Task: structure prediction
Amino acid sequence: MSENTLYDNVWENHKVTELPNGQDQLFIGLHLIHEVTSPQAFAMLREREIDIAFPERNFATTDHIAPTEEAKRDRPLQDEEAEEMLSALERNVSEAGITFFGFESGKQGITHVVAPELGLSQPGMTVACGDSHTATHGAFGSIGVGVGTSQIRDILATGCIAADKQKVRRINVEGSLGEGVYAKDIIMKIIKDLGVDGGVGHVYEYGGPAIEALDMEGRLAVCNMSIEGGARAGYINPDQTTYDYLEGREYVPEGEEFEELKKYWESISSGADAVYDDEVTIDMNDVDPLVTWGINPGQVIEVSEPIPAPEDFESRTDREAAEQALEHMNLEAGDSMLGYDVDVAFLGTCTNGRVSDFKIAADILEGRQVADGVRALAVPGSETVRQRCEELGIDETFIEAGFQWRRAGCSMCLAMNDDSLEGDEVCASSSNRNFIGRQGSKEGRTVLMSPAMVAAAAVEGEVTDARRFFDEETPTVTANDVEEVAD
Amino acid sequence: MSENHITEVGGTGVPIPGDDIDTDQILPARFMKEVTFDNMADYLFYDARRDADGEFNDHPLNRFEGASIAVVNTNFGCGSSREHAPQAMMRWGVDGVVGESFAEIFADNCKSLGIPAVTASHEEVTHLQEWIEDNPDGEIEIDVEEETVTYGENVIEGEIDDAMKEALVDGIWDTTTLMYSNLSKVEETAGKLPYVTSD
Result:
């Protein structure tokens, strides 16, 4: 059993009571609402004639179905199903007195991008949302959990969820990131080493020098993909980087109140005497950029490695998954992922749809062109991100390079709007899931990678080591290097 | 609903073989554009159940219609938090699931819906899956209290998560009712949190 970790401390502060079924009733300090998983929950409450318990602790926006083409955002939306969902959400939150960041607000976007940038997500909170990427908010040192619709009903009615406390695994990320290697590569490396179900039953505490060196946007990317490693929540202890990021944001108190709150934030961090259920070390020294080669996020390699063969895996499960992956992706074991033809480049999502992600990609796109035949989409994670990028002139770089510069939403991460893969298109994607059918086509193929790698793939029309576009001294890898090793 | 004690569920079975079957396969995202769960059964494993021209293929869900017990392998239901996935299974007719392991949010959603989820070893699960193939009309029974799965001459000594078992057996798997009675305590807890009081 863990002791005096941030997870233990925050859990203790938010525990209301123990329920007769053995679970804890846990107060949720921040509940984020979107249009897809909430309408059924509001309907259940109406049926029971129950009012919303803490409307001021709930915030809503629209992301999954949001059209990202400007012309398609006029109301009513052309997509009737999307319009129905959006109007239901507007009706529900307005009746309940819940703050809503709609298209008109200028703050609409993906819940996990909006809440951090507005300062809604803070250290020492419990955060819930009907979306599995709620782990993102753990970047501030909070407990963020994805919940189902019945649990959304629970939160709306009682401000709480019924939950079982998990084990805590400390992941020490040692070393420092090489040029062209990013936070996204850290989390993909963690999932590579620990597996897609390695985190089941655990929350991940990320720490160590490589994590401490990350800015908040990098930390958000790491925590975001905790669920892809099977961990329902992942977090990073708050530090000066966290406090500096928060200070001055819209929903963060100022002056004395900020200092008071900061004392609380400092008090919930894992103590020097914290006890973890287990500890793992990941070394990021000499790690090359990573890309997925398969159909789950654990099927991932460094660009310097060849695609593995099914027989390389010890467990039967992994062998079968590898066979299925090679078939779906039309890949051969032993080959390099470098040179794999790409039809679509997609930059955005709750993993990598923040200003720094677009900046990194823009540096590569500056003075270059998207390859012929490649459809390239840049979809800011929120309207705030879009506006900031436009102030910086980043949108121009994307447009000049041949990218479509879109409005905010989840977009092609899961294709609930018009942004979808067609047929067996291959997508170089900064998103978080490469499951079959995820990007809207059951034959579609997804290669997950960092924003820099997406930009580089867009330019070359194939998966390529983005470091070739960096200074001459930056080491890069080519397909020949990889295949020589494999032989 | 909160009065329902779920101690036993049973019926014929449907094997859904494969590890790491994710929620995008169980309920593809494009079918979540509805404000109720009413039609979700129609979309269950929508892509996997159809061939290229949209006709039903030989997917187990097409071959074992009317089944009540789904039998799955490891890390079933991984991926998103969408309750649409177990809702679709429930509305299709699934009253209980037996598997090697379940993704956490999926198991939580099953608990919310009163669907017992039993775990058993790889050998036991694959044996049951093969048995269903040979005995499509064979009865399978999950005893929640005993944590057993009985079929033919066989009994699997499985495992059900403690909280799920308590909830189902005591009939208090509707957590809203359970937690609603503690609202004054919730106010008390919230009142001690600096970020709540500073608003």
